[in-house]
Structures are given as C-alpha cells and as structure tokens.
Write a structure and sequence with these properties.
The chain is an alpha+beta fold and 139 residues long. It folds into two domains: 52 residues; 83 residues, PH-domain like, CATH 2.30.29. It has a four-stranded antiparallel beta sheet. A four-stranded mixed beta sheet has the order 7-6-5-8, covered by helices on one side. A hairpin with a 2-residue loop joins strand 3 and strand 4.
C-alpha cells in the first residue's frame, strides 16, 4: 500500500504565508544587516525547514516494512524491528522502542501521516503486517 500526503492542498493559503516570511527574512538580512548572504541563508533555511509542506511526503507499507519519503530524505523500518505502533488521529507512528518513556522516542521510528480517505486502510495494513509481537497503542 502506498499513498501521498500533500499539506499544501489542505491549506493553500499557508504556503503564501511561509513564502512571505521567507521573503521577509531575505529582505531583513539583505537590508537591515547589509549582508545579502545572510538574507539568502534565512530564506533557504525557512523554505528547507518547511519542505514537507511544499512538496509533500509519500508513504509505503508493505510486507518488508514501513517507509516515509520527503524529497531526498527516506525513513524506513523493517517489521522485525518494530516493537510498538502508536495510532493517532492524523498519523501512525511505527517505533522500534517498546515504550514511549524514552526521550529518544520522538526521533526513532517512522511517522506515517494519513488523511481522512485512507486512515482506516493504513491502520488495518499496519495491524496486519506488524505481526503478533507488535504492541499497538491508541494515542
């Protein structure tokens, strides 16, 4: 099963706000600090940090594992490494950690964002493919 989530389609006006803020950073660096390179760096940092909003992300759940791809960034986890699945209202977190008490929990695993059309199919696929040794948590 594979799908894509494009946040800019749900909130098209937000992309103009992000672009405006990036342009303000560009102008601020170029004119206030009189360092055009500083403005360019600010512009690039703002756009790069919101790349998932601009280009969206694609996700895949198959018999090997779960994968998330945003631009050049790929996060993947094999089912044999999965210990816990957290099912949220807009995403499913597939984690190699047994519980969420670790400070590393936010940085481990794969976050599978869902939309209203495919949420139930994603949850069903993860339950089926995750196996019997995976703890599933609603959260």
């Amino acid at each position: 099963m594979s799908w894509s989530v494009r946040p800019y389609q749900q909130a098209p006006n937000k992309r103009w706000v992000i672009l405006a803020v990036a342009l303000v950073a560009l102008a601020f660096g170029a004119f206030v600090f009189k360092a055009p390179i500083l403005g360019v760096v600010g512009f690039v940092v703002i756009l790069a940090s919101t790349v998932d909003f601009w280009i969206g992300s694609s996700y895949k759940v198959d018999r090997r594992g779960a994968t998330s791809r945003t631009g050049l960034s790929v996060s993947s986890i094999a089912w044999e490494d999965v210990k816990r699945v957290v099912i949220g209202p807009t995403a499913v977190k597939v984690s190699p950690l047994e519980d969420g008490s670790s400070r590393l929990d936010e940085f481990r695993g794969v976050l599978l964002k869902t939309n209203a059309e495919n949420r139930e199919q994603v949850v069903e696929a993860v339950r089926k493919l995750g196996g019997s040794n995976v703890r599933i948590v609603e959260g």
